[in-house]
């Protein structure tokens, strides 16, 4: 559980496990509770422990992120914010816009690739008069050491969506929706075997999983250092991708092509 002291009350962000490897993120400040991507309702109700649910945030339309909306809305009559394409959304969100959640600004960014309606939700928490902690809820687009599959979008769309997220402040906390970290790091190690940061992260994340603890959230700094999908201009990553694809001239491949090779490679990994 992450506790960060804001100007008024303490913000708590904690994972609610769902299905086999999903995380529903639970945001609490005082008596106010919000959840992100509730694929199931029952784990949310249990986590609330009798408290009321004040709102639901949705990143995209897949059922393992939206399946609990109907039941939760019926029980709590709370607003549901997310893409207009999602059944049950009461307040449609669009990229470039923003709303206030828990008294804090929540920015919205279009990040197509995994799905065409995918949104990044960026909560900016004031922790002092001069300091802001950014929290990124990125659904199935950016994973710890990985990225989502391309179910609807193109490699180019996903590459540019990830590029947008990579420009967030390095200390931004990354809350993705699945516990895929170890598998992603094993792939990253094959792509970039000379990267010691990957080995170090793999060791620390293995220890967390051995203790039955989540490996999330990560940070943008960690992703830039160890996520191959954000490192498509790194020579060793380029060389590995070209070798996998049977391309004898790596220098002729642009970053989108490298990304596409990596994504196809990971699909078969």
UniProtKB/TrEMBL annotation:
Gene3D superfamilies: Ribonuclease Z/Hydroxyacylglutathione hydrolase-like (3.60.15.10). Pathway: Secondary metabolite metabolism; methylglyoxal degradation; (R)-lactate from methylglyoxal: step 2/2. Zn(2+) 1 binds at residues 60, 62, 114, 140. It comes from the Bacteria. GO terms for molecular function: hydroxyacylglutathione hydrolase activity. Residues 21-178 form the Metallo-beta-lactamase domain. Its EC number is 3.1.2.6. Its cofactor is Zn(2+). It holds the Pfam family HAGH_C. Zn(2+) 2 binds at residues 64-65, 140, 178. InterPro entries: Clx_II_MBL (IPR035680), Glyoxalase_II_hydrolase (IPR050110), HAGH_C (IPR032282), Hydroxyacylglutathione_Hdrlase (IPR017782), Metallo-B-lactamas (IPR001279), RibonucZ/Hydroxyglut_hydro (IPR036866). Binds 2 Zn(2+) ions per subunit. PANTHER family: HYDROXYACYLGLUTATHIONE HYDROLASE, HYDROXYACYLGLUTATHIONE HYDROLASE GLOB. Belongs to the metallo-beta-lactamase superfamily. Glyoxalase II family. This is Hydroxyacylglutathione hydrolase.
